[in-house]
Every structure is written in C-alpha cells, then in structure tokens.
Amino acid sequence: MAIVGVLESRNSVDYIGEEFQFTEIRKAFYKLFPGNWSHDIADLGDIQRGETVEDSYSALIQVVSSLIKAKIIPIIIGGSQDLTYANYRAYDKISSMINIVNVDKSFDLGDSSKPINNGSYLGKIILEQPYNLFNYTALGFQTYFNSQEEIDLMEKLYFESYRLGAITHAISVVEPVLRDADIVTLDINSVKSSEVSLKQKYSPNGFNGREICAISRYAGISNKVTSFGIYEYNPSQNDEATAMLVAQIMWYFIEGVNCRIKDDDFSDSNSYLKFTVLVESEELVFFKSKKTGRWWIEIPFLEYSNTKLKQHPLLACTHEDYISATKGLIPERWYKAYKKN
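^ thats the sequence. predicted structure below, dont judge the formating
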C-alpha cells in the first residue's frame, strides 16, 4: 500500500485561496501502533498543486495508474473530492468497468453542464468518454442535502443509495456493497460535527467515529477495492481531533486489507455451495463461500447485454438476501444490476 497526499482543492465550491498540508494527519498516523500486518506501507509524500487543476489531475492519474499496475493500493488524502474524477480516470487503461462507492452526505451529481467541482464530479464521470462506470453507490446520504432531481436521477440510472439512518441502524449493510467496489471515496464531511474539532463546519448529523472506521475496515477487507481516498480535509490550527480521525480511518482501512481472505474464486466447485431459487419466473442462483460464509448472487446475461458485465457475473449479497428470495422477494441490488445489463 502507498499513502499519497494531493494538495489540490481549487475546484472546491468553498475554495478561498488557502493552502494546506497534511502534516498533522501524518503525525497522528505515525503515533498509532501497527496491527499484526503483513503488507508493507510506503508514504510517497504529497502531489503538489499543478499550475492548473488539470495538471494536478494528470499527476494523480499517473501516480494512481502506476501503483495499481504494480498491484499497490493507493490511499489518497485530499484535497477536494473532485479528485475522485482523476482517481477514476487512472483506471482507463486498466479496467473497462468500474464500481465506485462514495461515503458522503450528498450524491455529488451536480450540474454537469458547468465546470467540475467537488459537488459535481460524478456528473462528469457519467457523461465523459470512455464510459467505464458500471455502478455508483452512495453510502450515508441525507435527503435534505440532495435535490429531488438528483434523487430521481439516481433511481433512473439504477444506481444505489443508502440513507444515513439505514446504515447506522445496521452497519453491516455496507459490506456487500464495498465487496463489489473498485474505488472507495470518502468525504470526511459525512462525519457529524461532534466527532471533530469545533473549527470544522460539519453537519450535526452524520456518522460517528466508530461507524466511519467500521466502514473503512469493510472497504479494506474487500478483495476488489484497489484504491481508497479520504477527501475534504480542511486543516486548521490546533485541530488535532480531525487529523486523528483521518489517521484512524486510514489505520482501519489498512487493517482491513491485512485481513483479506481470497474467497471469490468460483473455478473450484469444492470451495462454495450453490443454491437455486425460483422467484417470479426468475431463476436466482446464489453462491456461498465455504471459507468465509459470504454470499453472492449470479447476474443473468441477456443476448444483447453489455459485454462489460461479463467480467463480473456475480454480485455480492447477504444471507438475508437469500432468505428473502426463498420468500418470493427479489433482492433490490440484483434487480438494479439486472436492469443495467
């Protein structure tokens, strides 16, 4: 794994010309004891601001692409969250189908007809060629931070969204979603204000420290996640609490990576159990790993289907999804993936 800072925030809607560093995050991180880890971690320092924002994007694309090709997971510290766009573009010559999970109070769809910013980068990802985005999932969204038009568009595109309350009620609901992710982008503003310094202008509602760290660990455990970014950190004087939280989010992601278990190789029929359930004339095929007990559901192909999907015919799910299917209920994640097919 490699830690990469990006000192770029000029496309933030709140940018007022300030410069910043990640010194306090690094101080807090290096005070933490490592777990029983087998993976090496390198700190590559910071990507300085380019002459233009596009120069900063280009530098991040090159760094992330090189790391992924070398089988090294980048942990990106930002900077404004529009850097997720550059993170996504780093996969252009690596994978033709990308799943993004965004831990955020907002969808960040924005107005794609206007220049990109930290609240509209997803619109640029969706509309700009090459079209490599297969699925986008928002974790922890809060309705009053999103327009009805954005909520309707998420449904129209068959993207997934999980409300803050649904996740805080049962944090494990995010596990199968993160198991399918390639890119995880985390907006630190998804954390509620009481968890950070009074200097930070966060919402009073959001994830607490334990919840955001649990989500980060689930992201690390995923065998498919190949890049992880933490964005919207705004350092201020004597603000140790926020820096400590970011450091602990990083720690839990690294802990998760070190706990990965290869259980998604279905070429060996002895490594899984297969279950078939008939629901509303649809044959749903479930797989359960004997090693970990985790579940997947098969996505059927249509004759005219998008060939990109054939790279990932299985969708992560839960035991509860299987139980629901036996009661005649089609899992919503399966339905949306099927409609995109």
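The chain has a mean pLDDT of 93.
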